[in-house]
Amino acid sequence: MNDRPCILVTGGAGYIGSHCCRALTAAGYHPVVYDNFSTGHRSFVTGSLVTGDVADRSMLDRAFAQHRIVAVMHFAASSQVGESVSDPQKYYLNNVACTLSLLEAMRDAGCHRLVFSSTGAVYGNADSKALPESYACAPINPYGATKFMIERILADYRSAYGLGSFCLRYFNASGADASGEIGELRDHETHLIPRAMMALQGHVADFALFGNDYATPDGTAIRDYIHVTDLATAHVLALKLLMQGHLGGAFNLGSGAGFSVRQILSAIATETGREVPHVVKPRRPGDPTYLVADTSAALKTLRFKPTHSDLATIIRTAWAWHRKAHPLRAAEPFAADNALSPAA
Q1: Which residues are catalytic?
Q2: What pLDDT sits at residue 243?
């Protein structure tokens, strides 16, 4: 019998979830990965494994009973902005309906602590100032809308049922574990940094930049990039507060600095010694101009301060991972509708 507190990590075989499982282990917890492997990877699993879908109540019930779960970290969700615009039903089912299934299972099991993977996309098309949590949420795509709906659900559950829940609104997760053993790995990559690196490696023949007419200094969208290792640290800090009886709330997780798409491509060129070839295409629906976090609340409440989220560290660790995960090869034809979004 495991004597460490067991934390159920839905989507724990994915990019962010797997990094959080490593952080949980280092902090003295035992992660129980709950994943259907629709996008996750078995080689990323740390801790125990339950193969299942969050929509499957009977499997969730068995996982809670078997492992005596004391808290949940919830990462399982669909997360591509463009796809959410073209197929919103998938997002409302996978994100909202499945979260309700999870919450029902938690209540039945007497588990009252949840760290939820939210997003800066809840703010929508904000102005050029760093966004505090008090900024009005007005998501402009179904992905952001589903996350905001879940935040409201969790606020209601907090009030009605005493559910302790942190909604961590992180901005652009990036980088890779310093070990080089895990990182971003998707069948259909849409995020800026990994796609640019895959283009350099010959895995993407039609690397596109969506939009060069934004109201920014160089015309490309600006985002806040936070290293995935820092994200994992913040999740553990939130969990520890829940274990102490804190009821949670919504908090931004970012670096507090904004970089444009062209600045990211320049940083990649500096690290790799090669310019990223690209074409420019029109803006994609659902992409805001500017998303940068005000991180003061996370510093005050979570005592969270990023230590790996400088752009050089992000690019260096991501490049080390991609050289291992994606061996160099000749470029293959690539569908234009899967080209790069300015929102990584």
Answers
A1: 143
A2: 97
